[in-house]
Design goal:
The chain is of the alpha/beta class. The chain folds into 2 domains: 8-62 and 364-482, Aspartate Aminotransferase, domain 1 (Alpha-Beta Complex); 113-348, Type I PLP-dependent aspartate aminotransferase-like (Major domain) (Aspartate Aminotransferase, domain 2, 3-Layer(aba) Sandwich), CATH 3.40.640. Helices cover 43% and strands 12% of the residues. It is built from 17 helices and 14 strands. It has helices spanning 13-16, 26-40, 67-77, 87-90, 93-105, 121-135, 150-161, 178-185, 205-217, 240-253, 277-283, 321-333, 339-348, 359-385, 409-417, 422-434, 464-482; strands spanning 51-52, 144-147, 167-173, 189-194, 221-228, 256-260, 293-298, 312-317, 390-391, 400-401, 404-405, 436-437, 439-440, 451-456. Strands 2-8-7-6-5-3-4 form a 7-stranded mixed sheet, with helices on both faces. The radius of gyration is 23 Å and the shape is globular. The model has no long low-confidence stretch (mean pLDDT 94).
């Protein structure tokens, strides 16, 4: 009997043709090749290290984990430490008491056992309490689904909402490619709405309405609206007024609001603050019956940056009991999310409070990281804006800058000849000249005919001046080489 043949052309076309994920795409693969070359042939390239500014992965670039969180995890994972006298001098008192409480809430104190499909009840109680204290409105542990990062929660909602290619999801452009990829994988239609770069990546309700109406005319059943706040790759923080309009729009149009709130702790400007969409909806007097709403949160971002621990949750409100049963069923197919991630999610939503033994050191670590991120964002923004042909909006939040490149026609022609989008061509040249890895704007979507790159603000602060000078030298050389 012939061996079963597997070839790209008989794989699922939703994967092969429709799904792209630029933050780990061609440029990054090339960077990894160059990194190997640096190891095997040191000195063979014009730089001696690759600087990964392509992905929001803080600890990969040297950010230190928050001590309190790691102490609690260590104690939970190795509970016999709690019986040893030395532990009292090695771990803070509140980490010991927190780990003791958490272990008491885990059946059999077994962090190696599967949990309830939504996650350990005691941890969901703690998360609900954290949400209630953040928002000033009640939250319910039964509404929390703990997930391995925000990504599986997003996939789960897309899987539930998308029946076929006529089901549409309104998505910001530019957007984090998890959304385009996940809509493509589940076979739905991405209905784009454009963020307005000239107003600091503002979200305009008139554009939302237009896109919704146009797609309904094409027979698309628009099911949900995705909002990323603070924004990735755009770094804007929505104003409260704007959020109220979005909530009203979803209620009036019968859309599920999918609120990606993973950057809720990453805000760098004094005149903006994070408001969850649930808080906004409740403050408008809307309750569960008015609006189906999902909030995604993650342990990967914020000041904690625990990407590899894979923790997060979604809070679902405004869904009927039979629908919730189906969400539960989908969650059950994966059995449960990992327990370390679950514990971390409970910790980031309930960090030490004033008066706790760790509070002062925790606060110093948190403030140190966030203040440094704010300085790095400002330094990079100023540097981009000082260069010919580059304009860059302020990073109010999240972890990225998304500068626009006005490239000379000659560079655009050279890109075409190389069979590349102009921003991909620029990013590739930047990598080859400097070792700096950024992602071309085409990976996130952009107004046709405009070109961008996304650059994270995550390299350690002491490296920023060198990055800026390498970037400047490259850019000036590039513009000189292709000047029209
Ligand atoms: C806006 C946004 N949502 C979700 C995610 C997914 O993160 P994770 O699955 O690690 O929680 C990311 C990661 O960069 C992101 O930027």
């Amino acid at each position: 009997m012939a061996a079963p043949s597997v070839a790209v052309d008989n794989l699922n076309p939703k994967v092969v043709l429709n799904c792209e994920y630029a933050v780990r795409g061609e440029i990054v693969i090339h960077a990894q090749r160059l990194q190997q070359q640096l190891q095997t042939q040191p000195g063979s390239l014009p730089f001696d290290e690759i600087l990964y500014c392509n992905i929001g992965n803080p600890q990969s670039l040297g950010q230190k984990p928050v001590t309190f969180f790691r102490e609690v995890i260590a104690l939970c994972d190795h509970p016999c430490l709690l019986e040893k006298e030395e532990t009292k001098s090695l771990f803070s008192a509140d980490a010991i008491s927190r780990a003791t409480t958490i272990l008491a809430s885990i059946p059999g104190r077994a962090t190696g056992a599967y949990s309830h499909s939504q996650g350990i009840k005691g941890l969901r109680d703690a998360i609900a309490a954290g949400i209630a204290s953040r928002d000033g409105y009640p939250a319910n542990a039964d509404d929390i689904f703990l997930t391995d990062g925000a990504s599986p929660g997003v996939h789960m909602m897309m899987q539930l909402l998308i029946r076929n290619e006529k089901d549409g999801i309104l998505c910001p452009i530019p957007q984090y490619p998890l959304y385009s990829a996940s809509i493509a994988l589940h076979g739905g239609a991405l209905v784009p709405y454009y963020l307005n770069e000239s107003t600091g990546w503002g979200l305009e309700i008139s554009d939302l309405k237009k896109q919704l109406e146009d797609s309904r005319l094409k027979g698309i059943d628009v099911r949900a609206l995705v909002v990323i706040n603070p924004g990735n790759p755009t770094g804007q923080v929505l104003a409260e007024e704007n959020q109220r309009d979005i909530v009203k729009f979803c209620k009036n149009e019968g859309l599920v609001l999918l609120a990606d709130e993973v950057y809720q702790e990453n805000i760098y400007v004094d005149n903006k603050k994070f408001n969850s969409f649930k808080k906004i909806a409740r403050s408008m007097g809307y309750n569960e019956d008015d609006l189906p709403l999902v909030s995604f949160q993650s342990v990967s971002k914020g000041y904690y940056g625990e990407c590899g621990k894979r923790g997060g949750y979604m809070e679902i409100t405004g869904f009927s009991a039979p629908v919730r049963e189906q969400i539960y069923k989908v969650a059950s197919v994966n059995l449960c999310s990992n327990i370390t991630g679950q514990i971390l999610a409970s910790l980031v939503m309930n960090p030490p409070k004033a008066g706790d033994a760790s509070y002062a050191s925790y606060k110093a670590e948190k403030d140190g990281i966030l203040q440094s991120l704010a300085r790095r964002a400002k330094a990079l923004e100023n540097a981009f804006n000082s260069l010919e042909g580059i304009t860059c909006n302020k990073t109010e939040g999240a972890m990225y800058l998304f500068p626009q490149l006005s490239l000379p026609q000659k560079a655009i022609d050279a890109a075409k000849a190389a069979n590349k989008a102009p921003d991909a061509f620029y990013a590739l040249r930047l990598l080859e000249a400097t070792g700096i890895v950024v992602v071309p704007g085409s990976g996130f979507g952009q107004v046709p005919g405009t070109w961008h790159i996304r650059c994270t603000i995550l390299p350690q602060e002491e490296k920023i001046p060198a990055i800026i000078s390498r970037f400047k030298a490259f850019h000036e050389g590039f513009m000189a080489a292709y000047r029209d």
